[in-house]
Input
Amino acid sequence: MTGTVAITDEGWYRFLYEHPELREVNFWRPSARASFNAPEFSPFFFKLRALHNNAICGFAFFAHFSRLPDWLAWDLFEIGNGCPSFEELHTRIADLRAGIRYNEATGSEDIGCIELVSPVFFAPDAWIPGPSDWHPRTQVPMAYDLTDGEGKRIWEACMSRLSTLPTSGPEFPLSAVVSPIARYGDPRPVRARLGQATFRSSVLDAYGRACAVTSEHSLPALEASHIRPFAEDGPHEVSNGLLLRADLHRLFDTGYVTVTPDLRLEVSRLLRDQYHNGRSYYPLDGTTLRPPEVVRYRPDPELLRWHNNNKFRR
Output
């Protein structure tokens, strides 16, 4: 397996080091021009700059890359952006853009978001020497083979540090982030998974940022809905998600609409009986949803059937 080593802002690291409870973080960049791709849930290592000896100060697992406006990045990750407030995030983006002479008139207002799960940040006395073959002028993330050379050394050192850390909570023990085999050098995470923020971002992109029912594209009006709620054993997986306009999301969660396994919207008669209304929604009854293009992201029929049987008000 490969992993990624990326230069990390010291302030971002130090802020998040003080928040070990976070299970998702946003490794953002002020420009969204460059994309990022890596194997799902592959290790992503945080490397400080030369001022701190290029040390590795922690790692996480790559979940998703997205281009997001700053307000949505904050809405999804909040302090997981490495800032105490949205105002500071906005200021940091502006300062960094000024430093690189970013022209917002010709460039996108979005920021590049490398979304990570199960982060671990090491205390300064546990930092790991960075890659010996890292060129001083390299500014972009670099892929490393974790079974050989510097990649293997860094991975095994991280596993050694990990074994000495306490758990960060009953649901996400750090010792369970990777398999026991990984402690002997085979980098195969077994517990890394999407969280609420990465789920929402992934569903947003899977549906092309358009409501699956109405094709509404206005980002502030769109919400990612769990088919089976997380609180009722529904997974944070894209196949357990629907991208819906906010009002339809509310109706779906409260059972006044559902989606059948053949992807048709069904509107409950109780919306009219109980509220003497629903004129905006009954014309949508029978609408065929537009599913994601990627097959594995399409709604799971069994989860839809669960919603039909357990949530829908008949």
Q: What stands out?
A: Residues 168-176, 179-184 have pLDDT under 50 and may be disordered.
